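ok so I'm stuck.
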Amino acid sequence: MPLLPSFDNIPPEITEKYSVQDNTFILQAKTDIEDRIEVEVGDLKISSDFLPQVKVKRWDNEVNFSVRLKDSEVSVPVVSFDGEKIVWEKDNVVAKLYDLTEGEGGYEFEIDLKSKPITNKIEFTLNTKGLKFSYQGPLTEEYESGYSERFKKEIIVTETQVKDLDGKVLSERPENVVGSYVAYHSTKGPTNNVAGGKLYRSGKFGHIYRPKIVDSLGKEVWGVLSIDKTAGILSVEIPQDFLDNAVYPVRHAAGLTIGYNTLGGSNENQTDRYIIHRGTPTGDGTVSTMHVGIESGTSTNLKGAFYNRGSVISNVVTYDFEGDSSSPPTDFEHYGTGTLTRTIDGTVYKSGTKSWKVVASEASDGGIINSTDFEFLNLRMYVSSCWIKTGADVTNAHFVVRGTGNTDIVDLHQEDADTDWTFFESVFTSSADAESKFFEFLVGLGSYGSTSDGTAWFDLLKVDNI
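replied:
not stuck anymore, here's the structure
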């Protein structure tokens, strides 16, 4: 069993940062009562040995994250120090464990390889308490190049960026965030923040970033990070071709960067947008502050507000068509050009057992408009949403919320043909203008100056209070 050197032989760079207990190093990374973080390097449960293990505890150990390098070699490891780094070395593997102070801080569990390993996968045992994980894939899994309903324009998408046709970055995800994992408190978040007590903020515990592996000539490659909470395994897979051609030693072969970041790893350019979080407070109290994390831009003009969702009528209007038989609601009338038929379809639906089927047998820019006006509350935030499915030849199936002054407030539309059910949603603030105080629904095919034929289905048409 390797024993640590006596306390007198541990360099001051270590003793000034850590306390030492039973061959385990303990770091008080954050001491604020609102967000206390403690790191154990080693294992307090095995007092006679030092093991290559890191355990991060947050919010007074309400939650924790612990990883230990899997080691099957029989030789005796050597423990040493390199400045502020704790070094564990055994055969072909060198583990370097050290504190990170940049930004919100973190802890590094770096693995170096002296020579080509037998396997291209490095594994750690994983134990957690009160955490859930969210994988952060490339942006190509969230967006597609072409027209974006979210950004209301044509976009070009790569793994790390979403840009418009003018080259403006609309959303960005750093390379080390692509393929990474975010760890969240499994039960607490924004509604549990208490002034003078613990601040969970969004509930984010930390970030485990994708590792970049580097050989002695500076050649780099990204590792494939994988977390299997059920199996209790965290692994990093290194491309075999890189290992076959690398110049050793190789650094950061499984560099686990455990960031304490509370802000998100990705960002999005927001212009004239609403960012909404719904929640139920855990108890009575007074709201004293409101926080948002932003990156600097050309201009910043933000306003925060709290709305009591229970003080207004929920679901201003919803059409789910479940109460209708063969005919659609009687308060809808035809508008525009072209012949449209509308029926209740009991074979194609998104929710429940029915949807609204609209068929244009000839080129149409028309649709169906309800004859009942609904009233907005002045300057109130609302969300309009619907599900749309299209058949062949459809070029524009739309659901429009229109003010009685013939002004479109929200236009949700599917421009692609032959699509499965797709969800559309838009947030807006009601106007005090009399012509926009009352609104009506439009559902149809085609648009102003553009016609379409074909078949589309609509389900769960809503305008809802926020």
